[in-house]
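Researcher: Batch entry, complex prediction.
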Amino acid sequence: MVAQTSLVSRVALYTLLVVVLGVMLFPFFELAATALRPTADLFAFPPPWLPTRPRFHNFIDVWRIIPLRSYFVNTVEIAGGTMLLNAVAAIPAAYALARFRFPGRQAVLYVVIATQMFAPVVLLIASFRLMSQLGLLNSLWGLILMDAATTVPFTVWMLTGYFAALPREIEEAAILDRVGRWRRLFDLFIPLSMPGIVTALVFTFILAWNEFLFAVTFVTDDSKRPLTAGLYTFVGRFSTQWNYLMAGSAMASIPVLLLFLVIQRRLIAGLTAGAVK
Amino acid sequence: MSSLPTPTTSRRLAELRGVAPFLAPAVVLVGMFMFYPIGMSVWMALNKVDQFGHFSKFVGVGNFTSLFSDGDFRSSIYRTIIWTAAVVVVTTLISLFLAVVLIRRFRFRAVARSLLLLPWATSLVISTLLWQWIANPDFGALNHLLSSIGISHDRIDWLAEPSHSFPLMIGIAIWASIPPTTLMLVAGLQGIDASLYEAGALDGAKGWHTFIDITVPQLRPVLAVTILLNVIFVFNSFPIIWVLTQGGPAGQTDTLVTYLYKQGFQLYQMGSAAAVAIVIFAILLVFSIVHTRLSWRGVLQEKDERLW
Amino acid sequence: MASVALGGVSKRFGDTVAVERVDLEVADGEFLVLLGPSGCGKTTLLRMIAGLEVASDGAILIGDRDVTRVHPADRDVAMVFQSYALYPHMTVHKNLAYGLRRRGMPKREIEERVAETARLLELEPLLARLPAQLSGGQRQRVALGRAIVRDPAVFLLDEPLSNLDAKLRVQTRNELIRLRRRLAVTMIYVTHDQVEAMTMGDRIVVMNGGRVQQVGTPLELFDRPNNRFVATFLGTPQMNEIEGRLSRASRGVEFVAEGIQFELPISAGSEHPRDVLLGIRPHHLWAAPDAVPGRVSLGRGIVEFVEHLGNESFAYLTIGGGQTIAAEVEAGSTLSVGAVLELTTVPERLHFFDLATGGRLDVLQDVGSDNERTPVGAREIHGEGAGSDGDDD
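Model: Structure tokens for the complex:
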């Protein structure tokens, strides 16, 4: 913005910004402070703002108190599986939609956009029945399949945009070089769209990592729980040891935060695609 | 000169056979785990179905009529609308403010933007657990904070009373929706041609007028997308309410989503739960048509035919 | 090497017709240029020959083979794209080798061919680089190399020089001419640049609105344009056009326009009087203080401004009817605005077009068939003009 603003209004503006950001970030201060509290501090009144004696050992003890290891392994498997399934399903589909002309293409694109709006909750009841018939309740596969199916439309949509943006002449040069469709996908489109593919797939990884609804519904066996459902059940089970819960939550969030930092710029572009030039 | 045949059925079939392998994995996955469940939901909604998925009786629209005669269901529809509207409106206003500030150049701008990622990246379950702890009446930071600033020294039991817990939920949902909304709006603001502002400045537009006359109209498409995504996201949000109150006490903080969940997995009325799903689906369908209208421009038009 | 023949080739995109019933024969080893303004269908035509676009109608033959329905890779053609379309993630070497590898050529032969092509185009020091690390001219050579390495029967080039700066364009143009002599291959070259067309093409196909306007050697097109479009499209400054009327006169035919009147010493055809458009290239219209004896006078004009192009100068003058026309003046002459000059030309350099259809009227053809009265001087001027035309632009 080129508009000049007076000092007063600028001070007011930044003060407001600091206040809003403060409210936005306060819970994370509380997360860190609680995670470092010794258990004795938890139920002190009034609660201290900072831990009297920061106890970093909480981050080690929590692995004993909560079955974090199993939750982590399950979560990585679910998120990784969802990402791979997304890659297998979405990349070829997006390529076909971006680059081929075939009867029904418009209809398929329409469906792709529309299904992005189908919230998982709509599927919950019937898919629970389906999973129980397939014997996939209490199975990581059940979660992978549902997470993948619900994220594929977005991945297809985002990648279709990326693939469509590739210069047509490069593909035509390859056609003249006798490069078939699959080969063009693997030799040209995938390497040249790597940033977009990584963004879309990492996003599905994050969505699956954070997924809760299916996880809490389909899995009752604690050894199969991912982090979200696991941490949630920890609350009800004991008179909650919030310091450990927060330590576990912090560790569960860090991988996702790092991934988010990597993909955020392209992800936002993908989310607003069509609305931003 | 021989003239070529116009696209025939056999040629179209050949084209379809060509793309089929590319589309097959996605079609199978989405078909089996999205479309089949939706279709099955419709059928379940017309039947009495037990928790094991056994159909015991065809009841037609019976599930729907009993739903709509249930006061709790009607009030959860009402509550869902309040919930969605409040969250989306407030989120949009705050985000707009943040976005306008965050595209100015100032020190720590990059830091401020990155910090905003924190609430977005964190799983809603974890965020809500965190808020649950903050809202703890005795040992939570919220009451402590309120009394430190001198706003209220009462022991507020945030989660016991719907009059407290529902606004708290709305607050949490706003808190969680602001980051993605702000960052998308920032992207939208950056996409506005700087020369428009220069032209506006030459035409004498200042401060507020620049914002109303140039920024808002140019930002309209992005605003539309963010509002729509938020509506859908908030409408369907499960973790915040479920983690905080499970819709309680006595269903007084239920939205359609938690109502559905209870019908299905606490009362084991799978048919009735499926009927709720259909109601949600119907509402969402309207949104998705709007969304499609907004985002399919320029993408769906046919280009030339291609044989190879 | 192979000849190319098009018969009744059309291309429709929905309701719009991009190319309409084009018939064309390209001889084996010929350099044919498709010339026209943007949107005239020239690129679409080239792409149909390549097979990247499917003809809606008609047939395409390469050699003796009907390739209308043949996959592009099986047509034995190579194409150089306007944007070069190099594979951005492959080195120059890989860019050259990729097509051969996909065709299943033995590794040793690929290496030989790539080396040979790199030598020919002086790409050897660049083989390990990525396209992003090359200059525009170097990229252009790689694009050319990718076509050459394939050793195709027909070379298709789509505005290959348009992304280069002016100096590089001239240089590359000359290189292409040299290369073409060396490879002795059939080339079809699309451009909107008439200088490229005139200097490179054995023959030029001028297209407009999806139709072929005229096919001929550069000089044929320049000297005997088929219609108004070809006449005004070729040559800079653009040909002057004056609306008027041709009718029978005492010593031949008379041309009358607002403020202009002259007679041509030729026998009148049968269709006079008729409304025509007189075309005169500025190069063939001289403006000087005094009339030159033996030339046809178009009357006087008032100098509006003078354009100095270095080795030649043109004046823009207002003539009787208020119209502005361009005429050549003595190079570097210091004319002042408002000066009144005499405009003269020779009959051989006049073009007449039917006002309604824009088609060429062979008024001057009559000169040949009825040549007793043709002034000898005019013939000589014709000869001179033809010799220098090629360098005019």
